[in-house]
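A reminder from the course coordinator: this example appears on the midterm review sheet, so study it carefully.

Given structure:
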């Protein structure tokens, strides 16, 4: 993995080489160098390690994704701000099954750093709403669910949001007490 600044320097040098090839009359070589420089510019905005970790997650290979993410040693120097957000988002997804406190920290940091796609932001807020529900913070969970619903423009998370809203309704309904002060077994009357 190259540092983000090295990627920009390489892209600049390759564009300079492309300009030189254009001036020499080698149009084909110049175009090839421009395409090569665009790869480094693309990798500046989309980190190759994070892309490989996403591919592992698509295959449900959490161990493989964790190995790729562990290769990023100094995220502040190596990644731009949104890539740091995705690094925290992916770490949150992986630890959400085992440690919800740590997952909550990762998701909150990912949201604060920013995520490029609204669907990813909606998923992070949906996960935070689930964590808030397990910790009996109903107001926070409800606000996070409404934010996630607003961000989910293509209704990809519609079923999960509805299911979570139903679970919240079940949590908020008080249970009836039977026995003393409640109903008796004789048609509801007490003598």
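Designed residues:
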């Amino acid at each position: 993995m190259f540092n983000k600044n090295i990627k920009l320097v390489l892209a600049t040098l390759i564009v300079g080489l492309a300009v030189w090839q254009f001036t020499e009359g080698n149009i084909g070589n110049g175009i090839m160098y421009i395409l090569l420089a665009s790869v480094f510019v693309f990798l500046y905005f989309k980190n190759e390690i994070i892309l490989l970790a996403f591919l592992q997650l698509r295959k449900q290979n959490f161990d493989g994704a964790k190995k790729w993410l562990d290769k990023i040693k100094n995220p502040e120097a190596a990644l731009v701000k949104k890539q740091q957000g995705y690094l925290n988002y992916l770490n949150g997804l992986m630890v959400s099954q085992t440690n919800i406190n740590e997952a909550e920290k990762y998701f909150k940091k990912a949201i604060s750093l920013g995520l490029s796609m609204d669907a990813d932001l909606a998923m992070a807020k949906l996960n935070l709403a689930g964590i808030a529900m397990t910790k009996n913070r109903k107001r926070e969970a409800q606000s996070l669910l409404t934010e996630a619903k607003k961000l989910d423009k293509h209704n990809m998370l519609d079923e999960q949001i509805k299911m979570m809203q139903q679970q919240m309704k079940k949590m908020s309904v008080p249970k009836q007490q039977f026995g003393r002060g409640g109903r008796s077994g004789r048609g509801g009357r007490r003598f």
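Confidence is low (pLDDT under 50) at residues 182-186. The chain has ten helices and no strands.
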